[in-house]
Amino acid sequence: MGEADTSSIVDDLLLKNFYAEVSEVERDNEVVRILSCFKLNAFEYLNLPFDSSPEDVKKQYRKLSLLVHPDKCKHPQAKEAFSALAKAQQLLLDPQEREYLVNQINAAREELRAKRKKQLKKDTASKLKSLVDEGKYEQEYEKSDEFQQQLKLKVREILTDQEWRRRKMQMRISEEEGRLKKDEEESKEMWKRKREHEEQWEGTRENRVSSWRDFMKGGKKIKNTFGEFSPMCAFLF
């Protein structure tokens, strides 16, 4: 067994021992935190910074999942919280899902930067300091709790807007599919009635032919002011 494997086993044991000593109140609080998270942001469920790596995601999931595991936590919604963590990890480890989320986070960050830039134009002292520090001033600001909170809220705003757009599009697609299905059913019903009519008409052919023959045998010519009609004319009129 290598040194890395031994270290990993030791870490696991320490982690399990630590969570064995965690109070029930702390476990319950974590369940409440998880279930109160913004549902469209997997980073919030795992309580991770937006720039966390996939490896960070795996480690954090392991820690939190041990904390709220239904076998360890007595909270009635522990299972729900545990499932939410598992889904969050799955999303953040999926390349496409992660890329989508990161793109929305970057869009939120750029919006805040643009807003910040406008504010600095009005604040001469801050603008000069930003120029002197060659961007370091802004880098430090983006690490601040104030900026991180703004970013978190802006990400929520953008994700909500995107989800609303997606749902509206899905509604339109569903409505269009429903309309097409209705048109298709009406078309089928129309052709069905037409076929039934043709079948009924075809089914009476023999009777019509027989009636015509009987008429031809016993029919009489009909006279009117225009002269004499043949039996066929009498039948038609």
Automatic annotation (TrEMBL):
Region (Disordered): 176-205
Domain J: 41-106
InterPro entries per the UniProt record, alphabetical: DnaJ_domain, J_dom_sf
One Pfam family here: DnaJ
PROSITE patterns found in the cross-reference section: DNAJ_2
UniProt-listed PANTHER family: J DOMAIN-CONTAINING PROTEIN SPF31
Protein's name in the database: J domain-containing protein
